[in-house]
Amino acid sequence: MLVHSPRARRAVQAAFFALFLPVFALPFLVIVTASLATGWSGAFPSGATLDHYRAVARGDALDALVTSVLTALAASAAALVTGTWAALAARGTRARRVVGVLFVLPVAVPSVVVGLALLVAFSEPPFLLNGTPAIVVLAHAILVTAFAYQSVAAALDRLDPACEQAAASLGASPLRVLVQVRLPLLLPSLSAAAGLCFALSMGELSATMMLYPPDWLPLPVKVFAATDRGALFPGAALAVVLMVTTLLALTAVSRIRTRAAYR
Amino acid sequence: MTTGIRFDGVTVAYGGTTVLESFGLTVEPGEVMALLGPSGSGKTTALRAVAGFVRPTAGRVFIGDRDVTALPPHRRGIGMVVQQYALFPHMKAGANVAFGLKAHKVPRGEIAARVAEALEMTGMSAYAGRYPRELSGGQQQRVAIARALAIRPGVLLLDEPLSALDARLRSGMLTELARLHRELPDVSMLYVTHDQVEALTLADRIAVMDGGRLQDCGTPQDLYRRPGSAFTASFIGSANLLPVTVTDGGVRLGGTRLDVPAGGAAAGASATLCVRPHLVGLGAGPNALRGTVTEVQWRGATHRLGVDIAGHRVTAELRELRETPPLGTEVTVHFAAHDAVLLPAGADGGEARG
Amino acid sequence: MASTEALSGRRPPTALPRLRVPAWALVLPPVAALGLVFLHPLALVLWQSVSPEGGGHGFSAYADVFAQAAFRDALRNTVLIAAGSTAGALVLGFALALVIAFVPFPGGRAVGRFVDVFLSFPSFLITLALLFVYGSAGMANGVWTGVTGAASGPFDFLHTPWGVLLAEITYFTPFVMRPLLGAFSRIETAQIEVAASLGAKAPRIVRQVILPEALPALAAGGSLVLVMCLNEFGIVLFTGAKGVTTLPVLVYGKAILDGDYTGACVVAVVNIVLSLALYGLYRMLTTRMDGVRRARA
Q1: A171 CA to chain B: closest CA distance, Å?
Q2: What Pfam family does this protein match (any one) (chain A) (predicted)?
Q3: Which residues of chain C does A92 touch, with a Cβ-Cβ cutoff of 8 Å?
Q4: A189 touches chain C (CB under 8 A)
Q5: Is residue B106 within 8 angstroms of chain C, CB to CB?
Q6: What is the DSSP letter of C35?
Q7: Highest mean pLDDT (candidates B346-350, C134-138, C226-230)
Q8: Which uninterrupted H or E stretch holds A198?
């Protein structure tokens, strides 16, 4: 539309792909290729191997994957409940602005600082969480709650109040309206938020680096440990596992979303 | 079963704006009351005060003899139909209709029969298994009406229910609503609309609203023939509104004396004379007025003539003329004394709406 | 109409005495939870930063930290890299989003979806990929030595601020593209067609029709990216560059590697203040954008 002559359009598209592919697609291609390579010091990797993945399946990398998934599930669940509750309760009240600022604040505070704050606050009784998996889950939950809150609050703003009012006029109590009308209508946004929370938690590194106990090593920490000691190719394999898990979760969630998107 | 609605001095204000002011109105059991007015007149606010979505700042709302002012919407036992249908998109039509019955804890065994009955009543039996998105606008509105009727409310609130439909569907639905009213003689209906045709067709009485106030209330015939205010006269049908001065046994428009029953108005007072355009005749007759033709419109069965009489515009709706007077010529128009209504002054007069 | 008596709505209002909870009170549980696990710990960080090792309270720790060259370097690096990355991401993101939205091509939707997925991946993957491409034993240098026969390649910027800058621009550009694509989709094609029919060429249309419309989204995306750049940790950590230290890396170093909690808290407070100031700006811009959008609706 903007560029009318076919030749100019082709030129623009060529420029787009010349920019887009190397900058955005190449990194992922490189990581996937490296994870399957024996070595890579020229234009192309030297040989194909599945050794790095075998190592993943054998070693404690599998534990790291399980750790990450469990952390992400727990943190997402906590964030969704808290964020949704806050968004629902604050809707239409004067508290809305304050709640909005409070719940988006964790985005503005550096993740490393969130980790530091938890270390400072929960290193002594009665709240001795330092050194337990709980502190990692807590950090992830705090960091992703902002996204859960934002997506639910935005969806609530878009929600037509007519449906809820129709339900109330038909004699449905506020609880019934919430469970049978409002939450089902929010389902697409809730599942999108769940996917986002899970993905962000899977990739969280900053706060985790500050907090992780020796028996609770999430995948990103494992990837860092591998690359830090120079094991780039096994690191790449771990990174691929991380990406694939994230993608699987996002796909599953978007399946739910398509089924839940009624209108 | 007690039905009927009573507004007792209901005032609604948001911030500093009063959208409904000391509104008093009674809807009798089984009556269809239309709230008619332009947008912003407070008619929807009045309806939402009955539904419980708007809390009055003053006054009380009664459903039957029960004061519902402080009750939350779900405990008022009303049925409501809104312009945008507001069907639950994640439920099939049947489940939509069953929703209110479940909320009212109707025994499980009874629900299916009542859903079928309600869908039957609106001619939607065949569509119970469809999702709202699979239905047309008119079908969705029928489901919405079935949903509201299924709980057998004593009071049915309709907020511009036909506005989202196209003209052809609208007239069909109007007939349907009239039939439902005949089949459910006990249900009081409050029908909010800005369309005078809907109000005239359906309502037993019409409450005319403007600027957050009740302007007039009466049967459609009364309001059309004997409007109580210039606003009513211009909002229901169209009207010529002329500023006149009351004299002994008549009125005067500029220099012309007119023979119109002045009622109780004191001589010398200002008033507004209302004459319907289709009651104005061309040529000599009683209450003759001379003026210049400023506009001629052909409307098929009728001709509409605009005549300038001493700076006042008078519209005459005439049965199709063989020959129309050319623009700028002088003509005489007249009207019968009993076709004119004298209204209190203060109206802006001018050309009629609609 | 026999069953109408059973309707709950028919009961007199006094039949069900209920505990009245004001609507806003329901907000309290989640806010209390947030206060306990986030706001209170944050306050403790602030408190610790003014409680030096020797006991008592004061700003001596701030004086100490501000006097360190490492801190001043980190502050300068953080601000410069963040500003540079934001500028780069804005330019690149605007150009790419413009093509996706207004020069449609097959696969454009897939590219849009790819951008969404990109946003949900961790930032350090970019650095990891760049290690393979530009690292000392990576692709680019390998090609160079292969072609020229030299002992080592010329690409050695990965452990410098430039490497961080490249990684951050790559990672954060999609964060600019997403709000832009949203804003672009709201521009009516008719508007552009009318402008074109009036004889406006593409650059003029971009400048006079598209840019004003996209400005709020650009501002919002830009300030979000600025805040995220100021707080970025993974990318800098993965470059493993000793020469490039930013505030978050300094917090990590002081707390975990040196065990100096008070110093870490001081740096953390500085980092928070910097981020919050920009975050405030971001909120201001987005609320204004919302206002504009609502005014148009």
Answers
A1: 4
A2: BPD_transp_1
A3: 23
A4: no
A5: yes
A6: I
A7: C226-230
A8: helix A183-202
Contact A169 B51 (CB under 8 A): yes
Query: B295 forms bridges with which residues in the sheet?
Result: B306
Region class of C55: left (phi > 0), else alpha (psi between -120 and 50), else beta = left
CATH of the domain at B306: 2.40.50.100
What residues make up the domain containing B328? Answer: 239-344
Q: Kind of pairing, strands B155-159 and B188-193?
A: parallel
Q: Work out the percent of chain A whose per-residue pLDDT is above 70.
A: 96
Q: How many CB pairs under 8 A join A and B?
A: 85
Tokens 């990194």 belong to residue: A27
Please give the mean pLDDT across all residues of chain B: 90
Q: Within chain C, where are the H helices?
A: 28-34, 40-49, 60-67, 69-102, 108-119, 124-134, 139-148, 161-186, 189-197, 202-205, 211-231, 234-239, 247-252, 261-296
Full domain range(s) for residue C219: 77-244
B66: chain C residues, CB-CB within 8 Å: 12
Sequence length of chain B is 354
Name every chain A residue with its beta carbon within 8 A of the beta carbon of B133: 262-263
Q: Which CATH number fits domain A59-260: 1.10.287.180, 1.10.3720.10, 1.10.3330.10, 2.60.40.10?
A: 1.10.3720.10
Give the distance from CA C121 to its chain's centroid: 13
Cross-chain CB nearest to A171 (options B77, B90, B132): B77
- Rounded CA-CA distance B103/B72 in Å is 14
Residues contacting A95, CB < 8 A, separation 6+: A89, C24, C27
- Chain C residues inside the 8 Å CB shell of A247: 117
The two three-digit tokens of residue C101, written as one number: 């939205």
Q: Based on the fold, state whether residues B107 and B190 are members of the same structural domain.
A: yes
Q: Which residues, listed in sequence order, are joined to residue B246 by a DSSP beta bridge?
A: B251
Cis amide linkage into residue C30, ω under 30° from 0: no
Is B179 touching C (CB cutoff 8 A)?
no
- Collapse the DSSP code of A34 into the 3-class scheme (helix H, G, I; strand E, B; otherwise coil) and give the result: helix
Token readout for C38 is 């986030």
Q: Are B144 and B91 in contact (CB under 8 A)?
A: no
Question: Would you call C7 and B110 a contact, using CB atoms and an 8 Å cutoff?
Answer: no
A164-186: b (≥16 Cβ within 10 Å) or e? bbbbbbbbbeeebbeebbbebbb
Beta sheet of B78-82, edge-to-edge order: B78-82, B155-159, B188-193, B32-36, B205-210, B213-218
Residues C243, C260: Cα–Cα separation, whole Å: 21
Judged by average pLDDT, the poorest of A203-217, B17-31, C137-151, C257-271 is: C137-151
The predicted structure's pLDDT at residue B165: 86
What's chain C's Rg over C-alpha atoms? 27
User: Quick check: is C281 in a domain?
Assistant: no
Q: Which residues of A touch B75 (CB under 8 A)?
A: 171
Residues A15, A23 contacting (CB under 8 angstroms)? no
Residue B326 Cα to chain centre, angstroms: 38
- Please report, for chain A, the start and end positions of each structural domain, with discontinuous segments joined by +: 1-49, 59-260
pLDDT, tens digit, for every residue of C242-289? 678 899 999 998 888 888 888 899 999 999 999 888 777 767 776 666
CA B121 to mean position of chain CA atoms: 25
How many other C-beta atoms are found inside a 10 Å radius of the C-beta of residue B130? 16
Residue B351, domain member (yes or no): no
3-class SS of residue B247 = strand
Closest-CA distance of chain A to residue B169, Å: 22
Nearest-5° angle of CA A95, CA A96, CA A101? 105
Confidence of residue C102 (pLDDT cuts 50, 70, 90): confident
What is the distance, to the nearest Å, from the Cα of residue C109 to the centroid of all Cα atoms in its chain? 24
What CATH number is attached to the domain comprising C203?
A: 1.10.3720.10
Scanning chain B, the segments in alpha helix (DSSP H) are 43-51, 93-103, 108-121, 137-150, 167-183, 196-202, 220-225, 230-235
